[in-house]
């Protein structure tokens, strides 16, 4: 739609918040003006109506759906609008759009902390972790305090850019969700403890701006906070749930503050009108996915024992694929409590 959207940020006070809001408003308007009619119709409920039109055009009586990542919000929106037209719906690593935003955020932070605990446990046992033998959580907290006292320099390409604790937490997400990148994450933390943040951002680009089309959808779907007071309240809640990564969700949704209105708010599913759903939940997102399937009687959430986002599509995990295909094709759910181990390659 336009080149880039607003920048992720976590301001510390009202003045900084107002500056971020001013910048994000200008960026949002530039994106809106590039395609105003499209921009106004990107919420997931509108897209769900488009999907239902495709179903009808194909002559299908009911929809069989696999939603990966944010595609799960599209699936939940369809289920709310057309529950009687759902034949089967599998939701893999999806955000929770069926509970109030404060609870949805809490579920996300619980997954982040669980992932960090697994990372620390891996570090204690693996020769590939340069922090082996150290208290990883304590080291990370010390790095965050150090970065707030004196923001850290980065890679040569970063120039004069400096990285504070908020930057390090947001950038850690790129290293957190794949066990294959955990050695690099550990090395980045060690380097940061020595005064350099280059391991978190080797190219020196800083925090990425948010894709405008995705942002237009997410903000219209209600992933936002209500002004500065709502922002501060959300930060306070996140600090209680996630002492190691508080603020990472707020850094993204602050971009939604300039939005005029939410056209597709978070809302419960009409559980008794829907067939049983299948959720697929990696460690990071299991609680979020389970919070969706629990609203529909008879549903099952398949636990994936790895962190990778989207094991059906992104990992091609054979165990996950077998369960999902059996459900989508034959309507057979796995047993309650079923899980898929991480495949050893």
TrEMBL record:
Pfam families: Abhydrolase_1 (PF00561), Abhydrolase_4 (PF08386)
Molecular function per GO: hydrolase activity
Gene3D superfamilies named among the record's database cross-references: alpha/beta hydrolase
Residue ranges constituting the Peptidase S33 tripeptidyl aminopeptidase-like C-terminal domain according to the UniProt record: 248-340
Signal peptide, first to last residue: none
Residue intervals of the AB hydrolase-1 domain: 44-141
Keyword annotations from UniProtKB, A to Z: Hydrolase, Signal
Family: Belongs to the peptidase S33 family.
Protein name, UniProt field: Uncharacterized protein
């Amino acid at each position: 739609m336009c080149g880039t959207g607003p920048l992720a940020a976590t301001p510390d006070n009202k003045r900084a918040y107002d500056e971020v809001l001013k910048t994000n408003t200008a960026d949002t308007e530039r994106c809106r003006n590039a395609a105003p009619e499209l921009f106004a119709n990107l919420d997931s409920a509108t897209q769900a109506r488009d999907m239902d039109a495709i179903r009808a055009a194909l002559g299908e009586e009911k929809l069989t759906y696999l939603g990966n990542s944010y595609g799960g919000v599209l699936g939940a929106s369809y289920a709310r609008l057309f529950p009687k037209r759902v034949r089967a719906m599998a939701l893999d690593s999806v955000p929770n759009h069926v509970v109030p935003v404060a609870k949805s955020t809490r579920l996300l932070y619980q997954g982040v902390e669980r992932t960090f605990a697994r990372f620390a446990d891996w570090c204690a046992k693996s020769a590939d972790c340069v922090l082996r033998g150290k208290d990883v959580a304590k080291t990370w907290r010390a790095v965050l305090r150090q970065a707030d006292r004196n923001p850290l320099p980065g890679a040569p390409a970063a120039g004069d850019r400096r990285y504070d604790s908020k930057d390090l937490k947001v950038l850690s997400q790129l290293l957190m969700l794949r066990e294959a990148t955990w050695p690099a994450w550990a090395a980045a933390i060690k380097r940061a403890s020595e005064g350099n943040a280059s391991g978190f951002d080797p190219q020196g680009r800083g925090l990425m701006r948010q894709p405008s089309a995705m942002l237009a959808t997410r903000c219209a779907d209600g992933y936002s906070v209500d002004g500065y007071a709502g922002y501060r309240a959300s930060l306070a809640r996140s600090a209680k749930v996630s002492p190691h990564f508080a603020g990472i969700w707020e850094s993204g949704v602050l971009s939604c503050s300039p939005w005029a209105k939410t056209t597709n708010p978070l809302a419960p599913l009409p559980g008794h009108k829907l067939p049983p759903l299948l959720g697929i939940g990696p460690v990071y997102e299991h609680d979020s996915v389970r919070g969706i399937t629990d609203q529909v009687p008879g549903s099952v959430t398949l636990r994936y024992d790895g962190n990778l986002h989207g094991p059906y599509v992104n990992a091609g995990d054979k165990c996950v694929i077998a369960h999902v295909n059996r459900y989508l094709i034959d309507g057979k759910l796995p047993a309650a409590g079923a899980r898929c181990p991480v495949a050893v390659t």
